[in-house]
Amino acid sequence: MKQLFLDTSNQYLYLAVLENNHVLFEHKQVGNNNHSETLISVIEECFSKNNITVDDICEIFVGRGPGSYTGVRVACTVAKVLAYSKNIKLRSFSSLDLLLTTALKPGLIVCKMDTRRGFSYAKVFNVSDTIQEVSKEEYVETILLEEKYSDAFVITNESSNYNPLLILKYKLYQEVEDVHSFVPTYLRSGV
């Protein structure tokens, strides 16, 4: 059985299908605030080209954010509908953890998404044989983040060379027990 990965939290729409720890295919495209218009057609096109159906999917992994408010909701809504209607296991991962998979290397790593107006969504990791969170996801003033972690390697939302196999390998996901109560991660100051 196959695993479907979806993330639309930033400018990239990302879709991948895995089977037996192997990426069967993946699709990345830059969107212009239009993931809601394209995600379903991208899924249909990718499935059709690769001769698979939703019935072949046994697990869905979805980026729960943080990220663009509408972007995060797009992938999460599609994942919830598919999981519920087809009785498929749903799992979620931080979109910042997905960014981490683009350049996993030993040391201190800051993953950040620019939210404009001098703020970022960020998460800090210490990577060795394991991945340890140094700081949880936060909405933070970018200059303060850069000052505090000036020696860290920085991965931004400009990166798109995702590796969903690392999400599985390091168990950077959570099982969604109740599809109906699953909500994306929205980070804002004071929330």
Name the CATH homologous superfamily of the largest domain.
ATPase, nucleotide binding domain
Low-confidence stretches: none
Oligomer: single chain
Span from first to last CA? 39 Å
Please write the string of helix (H) and strand (E) elements.
Answer: EEEHEHEHEEEHEHE
Number of DSSP helical runs:
5
Number of domains: 2
Largest sheet: 6 strands, mixed
Shape: globular
Question: How would you briefly describe this protein structure?
Answer:
The chain has 191 residues and is α/β, with parallel strands linked by helices.
Give your account of this protein's structure.
With 191 residues, the chain is α/β, with parallel strands linked by helices. The protein folds into two domains: 2-95 and 163-181, 2-Layer Sandwich (Nucleotidyltransferase, domain 5); 97-156, Nucleotidyltransferase, domain 5. 27% of the residues lie in helices and 36% in strands. The protein contains five helices and ten strands, in the order E-E-E-H-E-H-E-H-E-E-E-H-E-H-E. The strands form two sheets. A six-stranded mixed β-sheet has the order 3-2-1-4-5-10. A four-stranded mixed β-sheet has the order 8-7-6-9. Strand 1 (2-7) and strand 2 form a beta hairpin. The chain is globular. The mean pLDDT is 94.
